[in-house]
Design goal:
Two copies of one chain form a homodimer. Helices cover 67% and strands 0% of the residues of chain A. Chain A is mostly helical. Chains A, B: This is TetR family transcriptional regulator.
Chain lengths: 178, 178
């Protein structure tokens, strides 16, 4: 973490240098991590806000919690020089980027899928909805603001607004009298 | 375009080199473009599939047309080495990236906003919806698949599916009898 704070590029980070900076032997590092990529991904995970506990009180609340966590991670990335730097460096290394996806992003996506499957089973979600699509409908708008548009607004309450609007739909409510 | 096909990096592209490759004088280039950035952005625009004509038959059809265009651009980026290369290079140059955003991305977003405003005026969209949010609800899921997930599926019919599902909502249809 100190080396990243100092702006050392990923390509110059070696297990040897990490060990030296930490004041330990290389063997101590290798006891916990198989290599530089694994170590690096654990560092990213530690720098990100922790993943949330789901309230488990229903589809809507679980989805709001997951999207709120995404919003906070977006805010953290903007305010944390380390995270900003780390994501930029990861994107330039296809190997580490795909290890980060497999180890961190994919499990997060799977958690959303679990919540959606439970929601469909409990009847809180239309039975005809493709869940991969539903995942993107909830997560996409938040990701676009936090990742693709550096000036995208991430106000408090955005998670609730996205979840409620996607659940409810954008069409005017049809009169039940007609 | 030839220089980009040959893989010449953006940093090495100069008006002089473009003029030489095109077999014209630098003055000929400067008659149409003020500089390298403007020229480059016009090249990107020419390499992308053309922006669509809106059918104008209503909110749903206009949105499907806009999202279908986004889907095609996503597919083109995957299959075109030039586009792939050009986007990657633009992202590493904040100045050109922001010129591309101002000249190409912002007008596209404004077109979606116009369609949404018309839809709200005609009563096809709930009157209480924030249109900036609505924009992200429609565009976000497609952008996430085309831009953030290199393996995201972009099947035919995806534009219709996103638009119809977001308009309709994900909650089960409530019985009108209750």
């Amino acid at each position: 973490m100190k080396l990243l704070e100092d702006g050392v590029p990923l390509a110059e980070l070696s297990i040897e240098r990490v060990a030296r900076t930490a004041g330990v032997g290389k063997a101590t590092i290798y006891r916990r991590w198989n290599g530089k990529d694994e170590l690096f991904i654990d560092v990213v995970r530690a720098a990100e806000p922790p993943d949330p506990e789901l309230p488990g009180t229903g589809l809507r609340d679980d989805l709001v919690t997951l999207l709120e966590s995404l919003r906070r991670r977006g805010l953290a990335t903007r305010s944390s020089a380390i995270l900003h730097n780390v994501y930029a460096q990861m994107k330039s290394s296809p190997k580490i980027w795909s290890a980060y996806h497999a180890g961190v992003v994919a499990p997060r996506r799977e958690l959303v899928m679990q919540v959606l499957r439970r929601g469909q089973e409990s009847g809180e979600l239309r039975p005809d909805i493709d869940l991969e699509l539903a995942n993107d409908l909830f997560v996409g708008p938040m990701l676009v603001r936090s990742t693709l548009r550096p000036d995208g607004e991430l106000p408090e309450g955005l998670a609730e607004e996205i979840v409620d609007t996607v659940l409810e739909g954008l069409r005017p409510v049809r009169s039940t009298a007609s």
